[in-house]
Structures are given as C-alpha cells and as structure tokens.
Specification:
It is built from 9 helices and no strands. The N and C termini lie far apart (about 60 Å).
Length: about 200
C-alpha cells in the first residue's frame, strides 16, 4: 500500500512541477518576464504561492524548470575506475548539469525565452556554477588533495566537452546519450592525442 502512495505522490509532484513550468512559460511569452509574477504563475497552475515555493525558488526557476543540482550517490567514487575516464567524467558532468532541470518539456520555447531575457541567462549560469561547486565539494570530500586536483582537471575537461557538444546540439543537456556527445568526446580525445 505504501508503494502505491509513494507512486501517487511522485505523480502528483511531477504534475504540479509541469503545471507550474507550463504556466510560467505561457505567462512570460504573453506578458514578458518583468510583468509575470509568482502569484500569477501559481494562479494559472491552480496552486497557492506557498505551494509554488515548495517547487521553485523563483519565477525564473519556474520558467527554466530548474532547481538545486544533485550527484548520484556513487558517481564520484567510480570516476577513476578503469579506462575511459573521460567518458565517465563527461557522463558525470552531464548527469549533474541535467539534474538541475526538474522539468524537461518545451525545450525550444525555454531556449527562446533564455535568449530573450538576460535574467534567465543569469539564473541558468547560477545553476551551472552551483553544479560545479557541488562537484568540487564532492571531489574534495572523496579524494586526497592530489587526486582531487586531477579529478578537478578531468571534470573541467569534461565540462569543455559538454559545452562543445552543446554548441553542436543544444538538446544534449536533456539527452547525454546523444551521438553528439560521443562525437564530442572523440574530438577531444583525438585533439589531446595530437598534443602529446
């Protein structure tokens, strides 16, 4: 019985997230970011302001469908296991960057709004920095200083791969298994080989 309740709660949570995100996008498209208020978003989604803040920290986050980043429990532990470290590092960076996105619908409309509103770009950057800081903290807690330094360098390289892939296909953030990501990793590996 408890599994059913948890499943129902998760579906209700996902539905509320989606309604808030859709309402935020619709209202910003109609009225602009400055004129759109948290109260208007909550009203359009059929929830209270208090409920809004249980899901999103700001109206910008509601438009972005974004929140705090997370790291899978053992992802940092596996970073140096065996070969293909760059592949694992890229996967880890994508996983943490992707965890910021709590709602994944309407990506093209969201991108248009981010391009049109500097406040949304700034908030997106805030989330990217929060993800990097979370990873840095996890590395410092997991590894000795020398290994943490190597891991930081590896993750910076992985971040560059992610940005390179994003310039080729902005949808890769929501689809890290895209062939674009694999191609970007290959470009970086080949470039590094040429340098050595």
């Amino acid at each position: 019985m408890q599994e059913i309740q948890v499943g129902l709660r998760e579906r209700q949570r996902a539905d509320t997230l989606l309604r808030l995100h859709d309402a935020a996008i619709d209202l910003v498209q109609e009225n602009g970011l400055t004129e759109t208020t948290v109260s208007a978003i909550a009203d359009k989604a059929g929830v209270s302001r208090r409920t809004f803040f249980n899901y999103f920290a700001s109206k910008e986050d509601a438009v972005l469908g974004a929140g705090e980043p997370t790291i899978p429990a053992d992802a940092v532990d596996r970073l140096f296991d065996g070969p293909d470290r760059l592949d694992r590092a890229v996967h880890l960076v994508f996983t943490v960057a992707s965890s910021v996105r709590h709602v994944r619908n309407r990506p093209a409309e969201r991108r248009e709004l981010v391009l049109a509103h500097p406040e949304l770009r700034a908030r997106s950057q805030h989330h990217a920095v929060a993800a990097q800081e979370l990873l840095a903290k996890a590395l410092a807690e997991r590894y000795d200083s020398e290994t943490a330094e190597r891991a930081s360098a590896l993750l910076l390289l992985a971040t560059a791969v992610m940005r390179f892939a994003y310039t080729r296909n902005p949808d890769v953030i929501d689809n890290p298994d895209s062939p674009t990501v694999a191609a970007a990793i290959d470009v970086f590996k080949n470039t590094i080989k040429d340098l050595i």
